[in-house]
Hints:
31% of the residues lie in helices and 37% in strands. By secondary structure, it is an alpha+beta fold. It has a single domain, classed as XisI-like (TATA-Binding Protein), CATH 3.30.310.110. A five-stranded mixed β-sheet has the order 1-2-3-4-5. The model has no long low-confidence stretch (mean pLDDT 86).
Amino acid sequence: xxxxxxxxxxxxxxxxxxxxxxxxxxxxxxxxxxxxxxxxxxxxxxxxxxxxxxxxxxxxxxxxxxxxxxxxxxxxxxxxxxxxxxxxxxxxxxxxxxxxxxxxxxxx
Length: 108
């Protein structure tokens, strides 16, 4: 359980840091962190010229001791920032690229 609390804190911190850099004239970047279900997102919301934007920029979830990155549309990639913040790289997987790992994690 301590590990999950640590993962919660690290994900919340890294995602929160991303909201400090807002694009000029574009949609607002907002964080959505649900500690109860282990879901963490960055969402672009607002208007860009005459078009309404509501797009997932980053989505990660905690699943059986792993941080599963489902979507990462950030410029640098938040995996590197998570590792720099202290999250072990071995505990981070991409949901779309590791089907055997995901199947095992979901079965546990």
